[in-house]
Design goal:
Layout: H1 38-59, H2 68-77, H3 87-93, E1 95-99, E2 105-109, E3 116-119, E4 126-129, E5 134-135, H4 139-147, H5 154-164, E6 166-171, E7 174-179, E8 193-196, E9 199-207, E10 216-217, E11 223-225, H6 229-236, H7 245-261, H8 275-286, E12 300-304, E13 308-312, H9 314-321
Parallel strand pairs: 6-9, 9-11, 10-12
Antiparallel strand pairs: 1-2, 1-5, 3-4, 6-7, 8-9, 12-13
Helix pairs in contact: 6-7, 7-8, 8-9
Length: 328
């Protein structure tokens, strides 16, 4: 019941800091549900990094003639965690398909896509290039994936991997997405997609240019700036067994504000604080701010289409904390 698995048999030798929580009988705790304990999340991530390093060898065959379509089919058949293949390998080799208005399909390396726009779709969001071509599997690949029982959702995977490989800027009142080469060779994309309740709830991506100092910007699907000090703290403490008051606040607020700003359906209202906002407000006033670096404290800069660039500060947290919503 560890929920750590792969399509191929594997033996995990977990030692030192990778040893997860176990019962006195040396078995995994019962009833994990959908939320793994911190130690099991760390082990799961380490295991998936190993799988990604192994499967990255498959990308070497792309330069030798393996077609992008066959690569994506193999990723489904063998359960290849593409998001866990090192990002420098994906940057050099991975192609996705673009579909234009009349259904014509072409394959392109992610690093050659240029500027993209992001809009809402039935799958959550879709990226499009300057010619209006959408990131999506072609009709043949879509038909193929619908014939099986796995339902791999290749449209989502192609769009999310492209987004995680890109940076976000705000120009002339609109969000611009641009593929960006990884800064290091040991970067994995998967940890920057936050999963809650069996779905991705937020993407931490690079913000650049006018958006470089923002914590979050309004997008069809929640995103936050992975380079912002508060988002960095959220990422660093993600699998911590014990967290500080500031880490508790950061983990709640970054996800809350990105979802609240987004235009995704059924998201919290920015103008009418709810349960989540009130809880975050209380967490904010529980932080001993004099003990932490000032770069982590408000005001936090945000952007939305209606408000443009604006600040979110202590008065806003007072409004959230003192809302009429009940915490019972």
């Amino acid at each position: 019941n560890s929920q750590i698995y792969s399509s191929s048999p594997a033996l995990i030798d977990a030692r030192s800091d990778l040893k997860p929580e176990i019962t006195p009988s040396r078995t995994p705790p019962e009833n994990f549900g959908i939320n793994l304990p911190p130690g099991w999340r760390r082990l799961d991530n380490a295991f998936k990094k190993g799988l990604g390093l192994l499967w990255s060898k498959l990308t070497d065959y792309i330069s030798q003639g393996l077609s992008p379509e066959i690569f994506w089919k193999l990723s489904v058949i063998h359960g290849i965690p593409v998001e866990w293949i090192p990002s420098n390998k994906l940057w050099e080799t991975l192609s996705i398909s673009l579909i234009d208005a009349d259904g014509t399909t072409s394959w392109h390396l992610i690093r050659e896509l240029g500027e993209l726009s992001i809009s809402a779709s039935e799958n959550g969001f879709v990226l499009s290039d300057s010619r209006g071509r959408r990131v999506s599997p072609d009709s043949a690949l879509t038909t193929w994936e619908q014939q099986g029982k796995e339902r791999p959702h290749l449209a989502w995977r192609m769009n999310s991997i492209t987004l995680l490989t890109s940076c976000l800027d705000v120009r002339d009142g609109r969000v611009v997405i641009t593929p960006l080469p990884p800064s290091r060779s040991d970067v994995f994309l998967a940890p920057f997609a936050y999963v809650t309740s069996m779905r991705v709830s937020m993407f931490l991506i690079d913000y650049s240019g006018n958006a470089g100092y923002l914590l979050s910007a309004q997008t069809p699907y929640p995103t936050a700036n992975r380079n912002h000090p508060l988002a960095k703290l959220t990422q660093q403490s993600r699998d911590a067994s014990v967290t500080s008051d500031l880490e508790d606040f950061a983990r709640a607020f970054v996800q809350c504000i990105s979802e609240t700003l987004s235009t995704k359906s059924e998201t919290p209202s920015f103008d009418k604080p709810g349960y989540w906002h009130k809880r975050v407000g209380h967490l904010f006033f529980s932080v001993r701010w004099d003990q932490y670096d000032k770069s982590l404290a408000p005001p936090y800069r945000l952007w939305s289409k209606e408000r443009r660039f604006f600040s979110f500060g202590e008065n806003d947290f007072v409004r959230w904390r003192d809302s009429s919503e009940s915490l019972d």
